[in-house]
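queue> holo job accepted (beta-D-galactopyranose)
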Amino acid sequence: MFKKTHWTILSLLLVLSVILTACGGGATEAAEATEAGTEATEAQAATEEETTGGSMNQVEVFSWWTGGGEAAGLEAMIGVFRQRYPDIEFINAAVAGGAGTNARAVLATRLQAGDPPDSWQGHAGQELIGTYVAAGQIEPLNFLYEQEGWLEVMPETLIPLISQDGNIYSVPVNIHRANVLWYNPTILSENGIAVPTTLDEWFAAMDALQAAGVTPLAMGEQWTAMHLFETILLASLGPDAYNQLWTGELGWDSPEVTVALQNFDRVLNYTNSDASSLTWQDAAQLVVNGDAAFNVMGDWAEGYFRELGMQPNVDYGWAPVPGTNGTFQFLSDSFVLPVNAPHRDAAIAWLIVAGSREGQEAFNPVKGSICARTDCDRSLFGEYLQSAMDDWATNVVVGSLTHGVVANDSWKTEINNALGIFLADRNVANFQAALTQACATSGPCR
Ligand code: GAL
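queue> job finished
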């Protein structure tokens, strides 16, 4: 009925345009009439989109999963999406660069220009709440949680980190562990070194390796230095004091933090000199290639090692970063629904797959993470990820700085600026002063 009226108007306009042209009404009137016809068609399409909740024919999903291990995981989940929704074209708008360093800048520009993708990757925690929710850029998803029964299968630890005022804002696809020490088992055994469990044992091991001419610790570009830094803060302070740094209960100018920064300074002495020009994959690869003994990286490194055809416990081993045993420093990738998603229904279809057991079982074993859902089939996962599942279930859980859990974007940026200066001048006192200032300017120390 609705459509019929519009077609009638459209036909009348077309007839009118023909009459005007035939009567020598001139090009201008004819053009105007045609324009009016086009507008009527566009208006009709727009009204149809409104009533159906957006066109379903494509979905543009934004992430930073382009590189080794990461792209393969995403492709596996896209495979599930294509099977379930063969009529929706999937547009993979991934921007290269580990930890989203480039992608998040591109996303910010797009959001500012009012050109959001249909869904994007965002970390559970302050990155989500302090950035996208604070700016009113994403929609609450409580309706989807109810519809899909997700409250029964998503971990209780996670829901508060993706919620504000009773609204849930994203769909977590995984749990990653940040505080993992990857090592080359052959290098350690050839040098008579046991896997270190404390910072002191680790320093002793790295002294011995350095004396033997082996690069003790592989590191990459600056965000990987921040990743290393947060694990050393945790190792030095323990989980309670580490958490207090992010709530403002422990001052960044305290003596405990001085010790943590000195430890970090010392750890940096064992790293490769070309770190700033290496991606996280390059740095991790030094370990499996036998060119470095250790690397501290999140467990997406395992997805990469597998993609390279490396064997767990042969080509690489793992342990909690020394001094962090019993603590799981976590982060979670999640997907969001923007306000004004260009293809809202298709975006919801993507979110349904991202939150589904099938989607998560396809994605996580390849990505090198465990499911956010609690009901995935354990036997689909390799030895490392099974151990991560056990630790996630039993350890004390704390959040990652580099990957969006504990600090909002502006605070993290200030910490990153201070870190950049420290990597160049290695002045612990100045670093501590800058970190203290950062908490006062952008953190809870205000
Ligand atoms: C993290 C992200 C991981 C992985 C990593 C390296 O921020 O949560 O899934 O992509 O960056 O790029």
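queue> The first strand starts at residue 58 and ends at 63.
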